[in-house]
Write a structure and sequence with these properties.
By secondary structure, the chain is α+β, with helices and mostly antiparallel strands. The protein has eleven helices and nine strands.
Length: 367
């Protein structure tokens, strides 16, 4: 059970990480939208405040919204990313003031009501931690002046070295105790055939070998949808990877590219059930698998959908509206992912053409 003191500390730490990230940038940078794929960073700041006010101040504390007139503008489903740069957003000073005012109310609510069962506190806390990573994506994608791109730490070794996982049923998903997102539940038994999975994520050196070996020209290595995407957008290589550390996991690759890379080696992407079984296998196995978290997100072969018996909680827009719409599941967690978020059962997702996420891949094979 979370104590009020530990909640205050965790919320303060998350806020410090957010503010440290944006500290080097000018108001003009924070208020600009460099690509319709990502929000202006000032939108993220006010969105963090609005979300916290909704769930801690309003839902947990029973208070009216602090700024009800802002609710629609900072609702991710009311205002999709491409339009956010044209909205009359709070400026940087206004966003900071909103964050501070909401946090003051949240602290008062926690003092009066305590953290309850911890669900709404964790929802708010992890939401901010996830947005800090999203803001890093925007900084890198936009090539923001003053932002130094970060490469994942090197993981030397053969990315084709495989670990065998035996066939058999396995419990998948989060158990009933503690915090988990709705899409991680209910925990259920999945029958898993024997498979092999890469001991480490694919490296930049291996990716460059794929590129130099005709990876973006060999039609037989691409799915129909992936080839159509590559042709439509004239994707011929991955320029951002050319200067990376060759022994570091390759990063910023789309699912289409990851799938083609795996096919080029007679391998495939693991299903998310395979990934989770490997990640939650015995302690000896977990020690052998490198880069499960803290390196790059890892694309899986699985489409994002609900587990059998799924129930939306506490709102359907977190997961359910994305089910069965072509989104692919990513597992693990990147160097930018908070450890509080990167659990073995956490399910991330994105569209197969997306490159902005800190994503790479780990190979798998049958048997």
């Amino acid at each position: 059970m979370l104590s009020t003191a530990s909640v205050h500390e965790a919320l303060a730490d998350a806020r410090a990480a957010t503010l440290d990230l944006i500290a080097p940038f000018t108001d003009a940078q924070l208020e600009s939208q460099f690509t319709p794929l990502m929000s202006p960073l000032v939108w993220d700041l006010a969105h963090i405040a609005a979300y916290e006010d909704l769930w801690l101040g309003h839902r947990h504390g029973g208070l009216p919204l602090l700024r009800p007139e802002l609710a629609a503008m900072y609702d991710a489903f009311e205002t999709p990313r491409p339009v956010r740069g044209a909205l009359p957003l709070l400026d940087t000073a206004g966003a900071h003031a909103y964050l501070d005012a909401v946090r003051e109310r949240s602290c008062d609510v926690l003092e009066r009501h305590g953290p309850g069962d911890g669900t709404l506190v964790e929802l708010v806390l992890r939401h901010e931690l996830q947005h800090t990573e999203t803001m890093r994506q925007a900084l890198e994608l936009g090539g923001m002046d003053g932002y130094e791109p970060v490469d994942p730490a090197p993981l030397p070794g053969d990315p084709l070295e495989m670990l065998a996982i035996p066939a058999g049923p396995w419990r998948i998903g989060a158990g009933p105790a503690g915090f988990a997102y709705d899409n991680e539940r209910p925990r259920h038994i999945a029958d898993v055939a024997a498979f092999r999975i890469g001991r480490r994520p694919v490296t930049t050196a291996s990716w460059l070998s794929f590129t130099e070996g005709g990876g973006y020209e060999r039609r037989e290595w691409w799915s129909d949808e992936g080839w159509a995407w590559k042709e439509e957008y004239d994707i011929t290589h991955h320029a951002a990877r050319a200067g990376g550390d060759p022994s570091a996991p390759v990063c910023h690759v789309s699912w289409f590219e990851a799938d083609a890379f795996a096919r080029s080696l007679g391998a495939r992407l693991p299903t998310e059930v395979e990934w989770e079984k490997a990640a939650t296998w015995d302690q000896k196995t977990r020690q052998v698998l490198e880069g499960l978290t803290g390196s790059v997100w890892q694309w899986t072969a699985s489409e994002f959908t609900g587990y059998p018996g799924f129930v939306a909680h506490p709102y359907r827009e977190y997961s359910e509206v994305f089910f069965d719409r072509g989104y692919r599941v990513l597992r693990g967690g990147s160097w930018a992912t908070a450890t509080r978020v990167a659990t073995p059962t956490f399910r991330n997702w994105d569209l197969p053409e997306r490159r902005q996420i800190f994503a790479g891949l780990r190979l798998a094979m049958d048997g």
